[in-house]
Structures are given as structure tokens and as C-alpha cells.
């Protein structure tokens, strides 16, 4: 009997010690960073910049996997249901908070299914149009939309995506609904904008800045408080008489229940990445900047999610926009 008890205790101690050792060695293989939208979009761009930098600190490759669908919730669900070992993590944005109200049924619990890692960046939005769109400025765009409301099309990356939220606010501001065209991401949507297949879109500067700089698309406004150095000729919404400021924040999450030492290691890697000069330079070129060290923490990200759920819930409910 004593031998059985001793053996059981020894086995338990060995298991705990083995688990602790495994956590200390983390990571011992590549990590998958799920981006819940198609390749080429703004969230994908942020994800790839961060993945490359985190890889340098972790000593293992962080591989981006695009899992689009349902406004980002498909990819989020993949992470929520992944093994709780830190080898599958998520990079998402404001959609983490807004989907909590937008979707009647989510395959996860927004505040309970994830371990928060930290904030990454906050990106301004722009409204851009196809090259041959007749409107040349914001007033012209609003007039064109209202005169052609039955045929005008606005692209987005699905219900709950940043582009959808921005578009919803824009329609509310001008008091005119238009036909929306959902894509698996704004990367594919940009292709159709450039090809004059869809009229306009509200998207993050991480995707639109290069196209605006080359004159490949028409730019009507930026949602930042002030004009951006990278696209100085694009007026703010406020300059043009519209109360329309919006920033799209991004964060990193792991599955809930991920061991604390693993979470701590991912936090350190994220903070390392955000402190690298190449990351700051890359973000600057895309008209954004890395989050500060004190923002790249689990506490800061959790507080952001909670505050954004409270901020967006009444707006979404008032608009009556939901997805099953």
C-alpha cells in the first residue's frame, strides 16, 4: 500500500516537474499566429510585421496562418479551441469587442475564452474609392452615394470587421444606407476597388496608404484627429465638417488556460517586437505606430476589450445590425 502511495506521489511530482520544464523551454517549436482575415489585408500586414519580430526574440519562427470568415470570429474560435500551450495565438483587432454584440451566437466567450497578451497598435481608417469613381472629394462622394443609393456598393471584410464598423458609422453619419459587399478580407476587396468592380470602402491605413500615395485609388478622408504625414493631402473628417474619428486597435491573445509562464514569455516577446526600430519604421510607413510597453500587457488589453464592449454595444444595438 505504501509503495503504491509513494509511486503515485512520485508520478504526480514528475508530471508537475515535467510540465514546468516544458514551460521553461517554451517555445521548442514554431508558433502559429492566426490572423482571422485573408492575406493582404490590414490585420494581415500588422500580423506579419509582429510575427517576424517576435520570432527573433523567441528563437522559433512565428508562422502567420490566415483563417478568414464570419468577420474574424472563425479564426478567433480556432484559437479559443486550440491546445492551451501557447503554440497557437491570435492577432485580431477591435472586432474582438464588437463581435460580442454583433453576433447573436459566438463559438466562444469573449472575456473568458482567451488569455490576454497585449495591445499592438492603433490604426486610423480612410475612406477610399475606385479609380473611376466620379466624386473627387468627400462632399462629392456623399452626393454621389445619395443620388445613386440603389446601385452604389461599399466593400467590407464581413460583419464585425473594422471595415464594416467604419462603413456602418459612415452610413449613419450621412443618413444613407447602401449595398454592402462582404469579402473574406479587405485584401481581396482592394483588388476589386482597383479594378473598378466595387465603388468604395473604409479601410485601415496599413492597407490603403501605399495605394493612396501612388494615386491608385481616390481618397476622401482619414479618421485621425489630424492629417497624417504619410498622406498629407488627405483631409480629416473633422476638417470636412464630419464628426467621424475612429482608430482600430489590435491585440494578441492565447487560449484561456495557457500556463502563466508561457503567457509571460509571449508578453516579453511582444514587447521586444514593439520596441524594435524596424517595426517602428514599418508601422510609420503605414501611418501608425507600435503600442507603448505599458500597453503591451495582459491587463491593458483586457481593460481595452471591456471598455470597447461597453462603448460599442449601445451603438450596435441602436443600429440594429446583427449576424447569426
Q: How would you describe this structure to a colleague?
A:
The chain has 324 residues and is an alpha/beta fold. It folds into two domains: 26-123 and 248-319, 3-Layer(aba) Sandwich (D-Maltodextrin-Binding Protein, domain 2), CATH 3.40.190.150; 124-240, D-Maltodextrin-Binding Protein, domain 2 (3-Layer(aba) Sandwich). Helices cover 44% and strands 18% of the residues. It contains eleven helices and nine strands. Strands 1, 2, 3, 4, 5, 6, 7, 8 and 9 form a nine-stranded mixed beta sheet that branches. Strand 5, helix 6 (162-174) and strand 6 (179-182) form a beta-alpha-beta unit. Helix 2 (42-58) packs across helix 8, helix 2 (42-58) crosses helix 9 (260-274) and helix 4 (95-102) runs parallel beside helix 11 (298-319). The longest helix has 23 residues, at 2-24. The model is unreliable at 6-19 (pLDDT under 50).
Query: Which stretches of 5+ consecutive residues score pLDDT under 50?
Result: 6-19
What class, by secondary structure content? Answer: alpha/beta
Please write the string of helix (H) and strand (E) elements.
HEHEHEHEHEHEHEHEEHHH
Per the CATH scheme, the topology name of the largest domain is D-Maltodextrin-Binding Protein, domain 2
Supply the number of structural domains.
Answer: 2
User: What's the helical proportion of residues?
Assistant: 40-55%
The gyration radius over C-alpha positions equals 22 Å
Percent strand: 15-25%
Which homologous superfamily in CATH is the superfamily of the largest domain?
Bordetella uptake gene, domain 1
Mean pLDDT metric:
91
Secondary structure: number of strands? 9
Oligomeric assembly? single chain
Amino acid at each position: 500500500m505504501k509503495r503504491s502511495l509513494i509511486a503515485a506521489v512520485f508520478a504526480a511530482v514528475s508530471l508537475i516537474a515535467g510540465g514546468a520544464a516544458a514551460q521553461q523551454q517554451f517555445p521548442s517549436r514554431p508558433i502559429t499566429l492566426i490572423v482571422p482575415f485573408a492575406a493582404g489585408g490590414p490585420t494581415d500586414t500588422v500580423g506579419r510585421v509582429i510575427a517576424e519580430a517576435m520570432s527573433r526574440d523567441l528563437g522559433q519562427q512565428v508562422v502567420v496562418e490566415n483563417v478568414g470568415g464570419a468577420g474574424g470570429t472563425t479564426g478567433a474560435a480556432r484559437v479559443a479551441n486550440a491546445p492551451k500551450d501557447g503554440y497557437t495565438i491570435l492577432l485580431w483587432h477591435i472586432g474582438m469587442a464588437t463581435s460580442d454584440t454583433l453576433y447573436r451566437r459566438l463559438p466562444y466567450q469573449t472575456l473568458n475564452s482567451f488569455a490576454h497578451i497585449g495591445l499592438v497598435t492603433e490604426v486610423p481608417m480612410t475612406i477610399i474609392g475606385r479609380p473611376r469613381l466620379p466624386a473627387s472629394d468627400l462632399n462629392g462622394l456623399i452626393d454621389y452615394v445619395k443620388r445613386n443609393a440603389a446601385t452604389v456598393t461599399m466593400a467590407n471584410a464581413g460583419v464585425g470587421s473594422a471595415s464594416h464598423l467604419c462603413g456602418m458609422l459612415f452610413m449613419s453619419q450621412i443618413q444613407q444606407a447602401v449595398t454592402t459587399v462582404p469579402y473574406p478580407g479587405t485584401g481581396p476587396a482592394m483588388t476589386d476597388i482597383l479594378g473598378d468592380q466595387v465603388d468604395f470602402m473604409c479601410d485601415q491605413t496599413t492597407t490603403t496608404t501605399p495605394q493612396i500615395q501612388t494615386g491608385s485609388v481616390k481618397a476622401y478622408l482619414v479618421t485621425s484627429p489630424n492629417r497624417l504625414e504619410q498622406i498629407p493631402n488627405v483631409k480629416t473628417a473633422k476638417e470636412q465638417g464630419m464628426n467621424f474619428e475612429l482608430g482600430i486597435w489590435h491585440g494578441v491573445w492565447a487560449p484561456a488556460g495557457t500556463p502563466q509562464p508561457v503567457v509571460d514569455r509571449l508578453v516579453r516577446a511582444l514587447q521586444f517586437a514593439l520596441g524594435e526600430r524596424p517595426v517602428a519604421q514599418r508601422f510609420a510607413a503605414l501611418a501608425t505606430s507600435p503600442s507603448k510597453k505599458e500597453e503591451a500587457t495582459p491587463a491593458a488589453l483586457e481593460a481595452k476589450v471591456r471598455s470597447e464592449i461597453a462603448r460599442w454595444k449601445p451603438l450596435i444595438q441602436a443600429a440594429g445590425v446583427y449576424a447569426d
